[in-house]
Amino acid sequence: MKQLPIKRTAVLVGSGLLAAGLSWSSVADQTTPVQGLYQHNPNLIAFTNATLVTEPGERLENATLVMENGIIRSIERNNRAPQGARVIDASGYTLYPGFIDPYSNYGVAEPGSAAPRGRSGTPIYSNERQGGNASNSAIHAEKNWVDTFQPNADQAKNYVAQGFTTVQSARLDGIFQGQATTVSLANTIANDAIYLANGQHFGSFDKGSSTQQYPASLMGSIALVRQTLSDSRWYAEAAGLQASNGQVEFNAALAALAELSNRGLVFHADNEQNLLRAHQVLNSFEVPVTYVGSGFEYARMDDIKATNARLIIPLNFPAAPQLSEQYSELDVSLADLRHWERAPSNPAALAEADVAFAFTLHGMEKAADFWPNLRKAVAHGLSSERALAALTTVPAEIAGVANQSGKLAPGFRGDLVVSRGDLFADGEIVSVWLQGEETKLQSMHPVDFKGEWQLQAMGTEFTLNVSGNGALQGKLSIGFSDEAGDNDTSVKVANLNQADEQLRFTANLNDLGMPGVFRFALTQSSLNSLQGSVVDANGQTHPLMAQASSAASAENEEASAASANAQAEPLISRVTYPNVAFGQERLPEQQNLHIRNATVWTADDQGVLENADIIVRNGIIRRVGQDLSTPRGYQVIDATGLHVTPGIIDEHSHIAISQGVNEGTEAITSEVRIGDVVNPDDIHIYRSLAGGATVAHLLHGSANPIGGQGQTIKLRWGENAEGLKFRETPPTIKFALGENVKQSNWGGANTIRYPQTRMGVAQIMQDAFQQAREYEQAKRDYENLSRAERRRTAPPRTDYRLEAILQVINSERYTHVHSYVASEVLALMDVVEQQGFKIHTFTHILEGYKVAKEIAEHGAGASSFADWWAFKIEAFDAIPQNMCLMMEQGVLTSINSDSNDLQRRLNTEAAKSVRYCGMSEADALKMITLYPAMQLEIDEYVGSITEGKHADLVFWNAHPLSAYAQVQQTWIEGRKYFDREADLQAREAVNAERQALIQKVLGAGEEAYRGASNGYRQQQPTWHCEDNHDVWLDWFGDHHHGHSHELGGTE
User: Fold this and answer.
1) Is residue 555 part of a domain?
2) How far apart are CA 1015 and CA 366, in angstroms?
3) N or C: which end of the chain has fewer CB within 10 A?
4) Residues 277, 214: one domain?
5) Percent of the chain residues topping a pLDDT of 90
């Protein structure tokens, strides 16, 4: 490839340019006084003979681009340069618009080291209020990062080397992180680098460097986002007015968030589920949002597309899972193998779904992997046009600079990328221009001299062969090697070296009939041609020309074409919902059924029916009886020898929850919602179906007296989080008594949160109820004000914490209380009776037999373990006759699991009451079907095989209370979600897919392990009632962002 020659036309130092309104200066800002001599540096540049990709899909050949003082002045289809311009011949080169990264922390200082927090540090429960900041230290919305922006040349190198010229930047720390600024990566003063001072706000669920305890769970972060956005709306109305409890505070953070509807928000979601969760809450406040994705979007593409949001995605393709050691494959999940194969196709999948997206360097372990990964994405189906859009026009829109960057057009910034060849095939970036100034990344004409060259000099033809991977070696012979009668006589060359893009060597040509030592020098003149000179033994200089041999030239062209047209191997993995082993490729279809000749355990007044039939239409049980006729078009299931029961219902479960089961940081967290963090990817959903469970009540843990809101789900394996929710269920909430809520055994540092005693537990609940009543009264008082009074009075602030407690008081939200000890149960019943409502269900309640009469009189239900005891002090008095004794006193009693394992065996847990205390089999079955349905107030829909209820049915091959009984099929609303025979086939299919992917990894060799080590998702643990830790920290108390630190920044 020939060099880009630079020349100048005559410079006119006169009135012509000045009359056109053009400035000479290219480096000075407008307000700094000149120090010393005024620099008259003309900066008029013309690229001629260039290929211009002006924007995605638009390409000009042999065109001229003129820029002056960092701004593109014109684009012409001729190759004429304006008078006085510095002319750069760009023949054979392609010019692209400078690339834009819309998500970075470039030029913004990292947060300082925070005080230690976690189990070993003293808990911090409140934020130090100063300067109008928010009450939570994870909220920094008032920060405007243009105020502290400072160009950072070292950090810029990582971006510029990949062709980036512009970034949108803020400190990536906290939940509402402040307002970003869009800046140039040019090596200039901050004032000249700023393209858009006030860009979008940045946000995430990760509380970052905040030392405040709250929030410590994902649901806590979501609740804080919801409350903060609500508060910002309230503040817009209330600022400067008098509230019922005094003058409305000044709050700069809330004032700044009022601009969200105009500025927009860039929100970092570390996986596709969190993206959808963020959209649920942000969309409810009509926030225009762009999401920073994770590379897993393909796993929930339809849901992602439905958000209609733009994405910013990393190209962080993972290295293959390690399979080097024997048996190591046993530790590798099918989900990870699938992601290794499919991650490079994620951009193409987004493009095919017509989702607008931009690329970012954020989250990449190595900036140098950016272009290899982008080309890999192109090989996996992403068009070069969409790839360029993700680097230019789309991020320009996100970063608010679409009127000045992202295209090559008159009036736009002189931010260019110069490449040799097609960047999205085998091209390479030669230089990057930022604000009209060049940053050279490599020579414009690098030469690989290795190979065979045909030389002509002094009327003689030679063949030069150059080889070697380190030190070059060569030999020279007379004549061309492809001519007939090749001359085998050759001489070794000496002093062979490549320096300054020039090949030099000497050769003693005595054996070739040319006496003396000759000195050769060659420089590349075009892709396959060299030119230079040779000095003979007499000191005479002769012109020298060289051409790559036709075979070598053809080989180079073929290699280049092969690289440009390289396509990835076909994908062999499947995408299922969820995208894990045993996921569904498609949701099961709802079927109309005639179930015949079954032993039907109705769990209603009909009892057990032998040789009975069930008719199911549109997911509803239509008829139950014997010898029923089959309606036309119905599927017939011969259930001879099988038992059919209602689907099992678990009153107390912690499966299918993401990133924390407890928000245990404060004593009252009624604002947090398990419904915000339902995890549809949890394999325990499928496993529970295999045990006959169809409904689970997902509860907050037991870390505080008043915990979070519950969520009842149906185990519709394959649905998304919203599709799992049992919509007809009334709202619930978790209360807790006992040792956990007063922080017993939490460590010596956790002794300052109220309450620390059982007396305090009752007191703080009473206080919460009083706050809620006063809150309700304040809302009433405001509604009763006259119009004139309302204009002078701040409206009441919506408090989601008190809203939930008010629902409890008004019997609109049902309480499920973690409880063990009888005395505490009596105390709580006394407290709530004073408030005029009742506890709905005591859960665990191992000492319920002691106060069964009082529980029955109160009107509460009880849901307990069958025979758990002595696992902690509170459980020492547990007895296996507990359920029978409570039921005898008229307490509505059920059995729960509180365990992902036990949830699969609730039928045998129920059978224990038959064994221990003679409970009837019918009542035992009802303890896991009808009675928990009644406790959840969903018995209108489920819990028994009754006409009009949902067709949630379980087929057993033996008596359902037998330890030998196995579930054969599990149906929910007429859809088959588990089938034992299909499961056996699925196991074979899963193994076959795993082995095929393992073979693909092994077959790829070392190439398979060229990738990021942080490219896989973090696995969710199995949650238990007492699990209480900060999910934004690792187990050692260090901050865990879930991604790598920003490129070029300090760690």
Assistant:
1) yes
2) 12
3) C
4) yes
5) 73
